Amino acid sequence: MKWLFDPASVQGVAMAGDWYVFIGAGILVGIYVYVAIFWCVFRYRRRPGQAQQFEKNTPLELTYAIIPFLIVLGLFAKTFVVERPIDRVASSPQEKIGVVGFRWSWQFKYLGTSLTATGTPRRPPTLYLPLGRLTEFDLTTVDVNHSFWVPAFLFKRDAIPGMTNVFDITPNRLGTFEGRCAQYCGLDHAFMTFAVKVVPAAAFDRYVASNGTQAP
Fold this sequence. Notes:
36% of the residues lie in helices and 27% in strands. It has 4 helices and 10 strands; from the N terminus they run αααββββββββββα.
């Protein structure tokens, strides 16, 4: 859960506040529901005689409809404000990487070079990223739906057949992070993983210039 409190990408840091709001709203709604359940259990437990019967309570029914609507509307507005700038793709990214999902692994193409890394279910590939550089990802799939997910980046994006999903990521911390497919895609879905290594920009440049022969 470290990624939730200390995301390893600029986009993740921007999204963290949205996560906290959703988690807080979920906890408050959960507390209200359980308090209401236990209150009803004890307040209206079985007693001798005929229980009081009633029909309709318009103010209560309106309250139950309006409050959830306002909660959903607030969460939608909060998410829209936070995600809109994140979804906006930069016109001049510093790096561009093509990501291809296939059953059941990933292929990473460092666009503008001949460097490509292709994994297998038993040998997951490694994606190298330069620290602090805004990197554009062009995400596609050649078969079924997949989902590119790096929990440490607090970022996930679907790979849909026939579409290219474009997004930007700027790593803000050195390290090795886990990546995986977040969309169930068949028999070996669990093996559809990859490693993300965020390295200094100079080391990344050497890796690309050597066509992958000099690992950072």
